[in-house]
Amino acid sequence: MPWLVRKIAQRKWLNPEGLPEDAVGADAIRGDLRTGHNRLSLWTCDDPANDAQINEIATALGTRLDRADPIDLAWVASEQLERAGIELEKTPGDTLLADMAEHHVDLIRVDEARLSVVASVFAHAIKHEHRYKRIGAKKLRNLLATAVGNGRFSLAQLTEKQESLHAELSKHLSSHIPQK
Amino acid sequence: MNLARHWISSELTMPDYEQVAGLEHFCSQDCSPEQVSQIYREAKKSVEDTQAWEPFGESMCTFTIVASPPRIPDPRPSLERQVRCAIAEEPVEAGYSHPAEAILAKAVINQPREVIEWLVHLLTEERNYGLVGDILACFGRAVEKSPPWWAYNIAENALLSSSVAVRDSAAQTLELWGTSAALRILKKHDESVGWLRNYIEEVIELLETA
């Protein structure tokens, strides 16, 4: 698993409000690197620069969203984090795509110092290596609808909270024939 | 710095709320008293000459007037407080619904005038640009199914913001609406930040082929 992918908000990293462009804003850390139980959830990918692969991550993530908004994804090399002493644990990803659940890890035992390292690594990857991609709302809807069309998940699996996504996909599916 | 504030609707003869609101709330910016007078004359003439407004007509795009004072007691603090509290409690995140959307959706129906005033005020006065971007995103979602014409004016003005956060939020909102009016606004915009320009170009391409 050479690359680790995380959903972010590009603007928080590329143009931190009120800070120099090379700074890592607190909003980026607080908002985009939110931990739970001192773990940080990341998706794994062999080649995120490959559109098909990053789209797969977007689709996996998208199945758990409430609505199909534009989403930003950023990626870093796993070895960069491992070199800094950050531990990774393979865990199932929260997605309705059964074949994608295994493409997921948690960074574990994340403390303040480690989180700061993770933030620096992501900031460098985003600002200096352009390792990020925005998946527009329409594109995300297309990806999700195609996944439904290909039987990878069904609208019935969406929760009540995902009512908006359900409606968007239903509308999309009724007006498009998803590509196989 | 001269911030132009001018109240014109009371002198206009058009009773229709939206037509008048279009003049009052379209946008605001720094301008001289002479410019305000000129804008006022143009606005008045436009209303007198035009029986039916073109919501996105060029003439409207040049108005530079902010309504003041409101005709009814201003409930802005209440709406503002509710939205600000909701955002303070829960961050606005792409892909996740936010409680502020419901507050704004209700306000758009019950007190559209105040929503417009408040959003214009935010775009011109508020310096916490991250917050403005978040509020704009929630507003965009709140009216997603059927954006009122004035919402496009708000989004268009947001695209002129000096803040990338606000412009990004406006661009995302316009993609969300995905209408021909949204496309027109995006095509008119000249974005200076590379990644945002790329995104806008992608959206334009997608909307043109839709």
Characterization of the model:
The complex is a heterodimer of chains A (180) and B (210). With 180 residues, chain A is of the alpha+beta class. Helix content of chain A is 41%, strand content 18%. A six-stranded antiparallel β-sheet of chain A has the order 4-5-2-1-3-6, sandwiched between helices. The two termini of chain A are 27 Å apart. Chain B is mainly alpha-helical and 210 residues long. Chain B has helices at residues 17-25, 33-49, 58-61, 76-89, 99-110, 112-125, 129-142, 149-158, 164-177, 180-188, 194-209. The longest helix of chain B has 17 residues, at 33-49. Chain A binds chain B through residues 7, 9-11, 14-15, 17, 27, 30-31, 61-62, 65-72, 132, 134, 136-139, 161, 164, and chain B through 91, 93-97, 129-130, 133, 141, 163-165, 168, 172, 175-176, 178, 193, 195-196, 199, 202-203, 206-207, 210.
Brief overview, please?
The complex is a heterodimer of chains A (180) and B (210). Helix content of chain A is 41%, strand content 18%.
* Contiguous uncertain segments of 5+ residues of chain A: none
Derived from helix and strand composition plus strand pairing, the structural class of chain B reads mainly alpha
Helix content of chain B: 55-70%
User: How big a fraction of the residues of chain B is strand?
Assistant: under 5%
**What best-fitting shape of chain A do the alpha-carbon axes yield?**
globular
In percent, how helical is the residue content of chain A? 40-55%
Radius of gyration of chain A: 17 Å
The string of secondary-structure elements of chain B, in order, is HHHHHHHHHHH
Number of helices of chain B: 11
Q: Termini of chain A, distance in Å?
A: 27 Å
User: What's the number of extended β-strand segments of chain B?
Assistant: 0
Q: What are the segments of chain B in which pLDDT stays under 50 over at least 5 consecutive residues?
A: 1-30, 51-70
- Mean residue pLDDT of chain B: 78
**What distance lies between the first and last C-alpha atoms of chain B, to the nearest angstrom?**
44 Å
Strand order, sheet with most strands of chain A = 4-5-2-1-3-6
**Which radius of gyration of chain B do the C-alpha atoms yield?**
17 Å
Strand content of chain A: 15-25%
